[in-house]
Model the fold of this input.
Amino acid sequence: MAKFLYKMQNVLDVKLKMEDQAKTSFAAAMAVLNEEEEKLSTLIARKEDYELRGRQMREDILDINELRENTRAIDNLKEQIKVQEGAVERARENVERARVRLQTAMQERKIQEKLKENAFEEFKHELSAAESKEVDELVSYRHGRK
Done:
């Protein structure tokens, strides 16, 4: 029996490797995005904490220096939050680019796998036709000998 050899197996192997690399890249980009979002949520929580302390200071005994320091800390955190929001947005863009690369790599791999399946079906069809031809020849030979 003949053995099926896919002529473009090396292309399929490359596509599989490219998909694995794209998956790794996507996972790394997601990890960075999660980290950046965590930093942002930490900064927002700190800002809310400072705002709460500022309201409490205004209700208690007024200490102007502490209020100024609190206001500066809040302003500083607002600036850090803006910077961190930019970092989160860049991380989201990186994730989206990695997702598109992964999607493209998966599509290319699927195309190659479909081509391999089609080639295998064609191989089976040719093999079946060859076997059928051999059987016909054998029957014709046996029938001719009688």
